[in-house]
Amino acid sequence: MNIHSAKTFILFVALLAVAVPSLRADQAKPFLETIHHRRTLISTIPNSGDLNPYAVIVAPVSAGRVQKDDVLISNFNGLTNLQGTGTTVVDYNPSTKRLTTFAHVPQHLPQCPGGVGLSTAMTMLKSGWLIVGSAPSTDGTTRTLGAGCLLVFDSNGQLAATWANENIRCPWGNVALIDSGTSATLFVSMAGFDVPPLQVRDPVTGYPVTVNKGTVLRINLSIPEGKPPVITDQTVIANGFAQRADRDVFLIGPTGLVMAADGTTLYASDALSNQIVAIPDATTRKDSAGTGHAVSKDGLLRRPLAMAMAPNGNLLVLNAKNGQVVELNPLTGEQFGAQWIDNNPAQSPPGNGDLFGLAIKPDGRGFYYVQDDVNSLLEATQ
Fold first, then answer.
1. 131-158 as b/e, with b when 16 or more CB fall inside 10 Å?
2. I need a labelling partner for 183 at 20 to 30 A (CA). Which of 87, 209, 233, 234 fits?
């Protein structure tokens, strides 16, 4: 080998040494491939007897009765197991392994149209305020479906404010949050616009009638020191999502919401269309993007519900029609695989209808979720 060729070869090897780690870093191992253990942490049933755990969030701060990294869970059913009648938020402390009732409100709350049935729409601000949605019923079905509201609790679990207006109709899915401390932006999916009762059937499909009126609402907040947050403006940034009544899960509509790493794109799970969509310019747009554009559809998805962003930047999506969590790339739509996190054979397929809330653990080495068939909080870890 001559000197010129040798220099060229050395340069090639040096460039390859730099390039290969970069390529490998871009091809991160799917998060679910690192998850090998699952265990039940605690029953989510409080002293009131509420059932059917829905929302799962991790407290971002210590405030009042809440410790940082506590797991807060809402209950959708009351003691009699009627859907849309749950009135409690419970608090699980991972250090003490104890469950306490954080908040308990009357079911018949005049400020909340239709009453209280605490849904999957829940978040906690850095300032300690907890915001949770209500998708209420009085008989456990959509025959008595109320418009609902968003309830604001202080860090000691006391009701401080109730938000109800024409844009709020059964706050249903995960809340995506951008929080600066003195102001915040919420994104909330709504699934209750003009939904007919369960008995009204589509003559072609035989299912309850589908109404394409589900929305995603952006709510901007001002947070005065020592006072409850105040809505400064609100915009419907997406609409036209399919929604309908359901005997087993009460409502089906747009559910999971996750803000992209770019801080502007919002991902949403469109349950009845069996897809994940992206809503561009979600933080700044002044109009609706309709139903956005599809990112990933069908494949391993089985009526996608709650979503969370894994530490590697992929989306984790819970299935409503089986007990699996699916991992996918939100940029390319590639589905990397699914893992059974509820394989209860009492349902068909296993775990069908059991999964709702989902939250990444603070250490990034797993996630929390709930199974409503056994009213329990669980964790999946590495």
1. bbbbbbbbebbbeebbbbbbbbbbbebe
2. 87
pLDDT per position as a tens digit, 79-108: 999 999 999 999 999 999 999 999 999 999
Q: What is the CATH number of the domain that holds 285?
A: 2.120.10.30
Q: What angle do CA 16, 22, 26 make, to 5 degrees?
A: 140
Beta strand spans in 143-229 (E): 149-153, 159-163, 176-179, 183-190, 211-222
Dist CA 197 CA 179 (whole Å): 37
Is 8 contained in some domain? no
- 69 falls within a domain: yes
Cα(324)–Cα(340) distance, integer angstroms: 4
- Report DSSP state, residue 14: H
Count the helices and strands in the chain (H runs, E runs): 1, 25
Query: Does residue 61 lie in a domain region?
Result: yes
How many residues can be counted in the chain? 382
Predicted pLDDT at 28: 73
SS3 346: coil
Contact at 8 Å (CB) between 147 and 168?
A: yes
pLDDT tens track for 261-299: 999 999 999 999 999 999 999 999 999 999 999 999 999
In a domain, 60, yes or no: yes
Total count of domains within the chain: 1
Tokens of 224: 């005065």
What lies within 8 Å, CB to CB, of 235 at 6+ separation is 217, 218, 285, 286, 287
* pLDDT attached to residue 70: 99
Residues of the chain with pLDDT > 70: what percent?
Answer: 93
